[in-house]
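=== Given protein ===
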Amino acid sequence: LVLSSSEAATGAWTTRPCWTEVEESYSASRMANVITVNCTCWHLSTYAVLIENNDSQDIPRPGLLEDIVLYVSFVTALCLIFFALVALGLLKGPIPSTITNTIHKHLLLCIFGALLFYFVGLKLRLVLVQNDIICRILAIGLHFLWLSTFAWLFGSALHLRRIFIEVRDVNHGSAMMYFAFGYAFPILCVLLSLGVRANHYGNNFFCWLSLYEGIVWGMVGPILFCVLVTLAYFMLAIHAAFTLKDHVVDSGNMRTLLWMDLTLLPICGIVWTLCLLGANERSSFW
């Protein structure tokens, strides 16, 4: 807290000109020990450091317009994804047994879960940040679901590439390779992050990873890797799609599917970025 010169006469304090950083090894169990706090400011003043378990005053309260936008957008998106999942599950004939259909069902399921967890965390943040266990579970769930979303996008790009270049039928059979990358890879990343900084899951502001802690690279790093590799495979798939002769069976359908999946990548990237910024910044703009 800084004693503002304009407010010195009344003895008022403010946090606006400064920011603080707590040592990375800090956890609630160490409250009795010495804690190092780095306070960085742009001017000279009178300073004070206050430590408390949870300051709900720092959590922004959404206005009426923001609440309307949040409810309408999230509920609409969740309903559309749910109906898409139902539609994929109700398809008759040989389509449900294809690996393409399996990949898209699990991709939609991960997107649905990520948005639902985020919406719950956003609207119940005042309650959740006061319950360490539930808050941490929600943060771990968000980490896993967003990683799975981009992992399944990579699986879709890889599968389309295989369909275009391999002579044999790769759209039927075992999908274990895609399940391993879609779920096992995110689980491994989450476990590694938990082993390094388990106490950084959930904070006094939002039940997710903080942009201002190094542990966030346990999510950002794997997602950036998935995005880059997915883009590379999409480019290879596009090249293969346009060198494929039109008389090849289902070539037109596969090209349409390729453009649909290619559109999903920037949409998911933008939504994930906005969610991460909205969870870490106090501005309602995000």
Observations:
- Helices lie at 64-90, 99-123, 125-128, 132-165, 176-197, 217-243, 251-280.
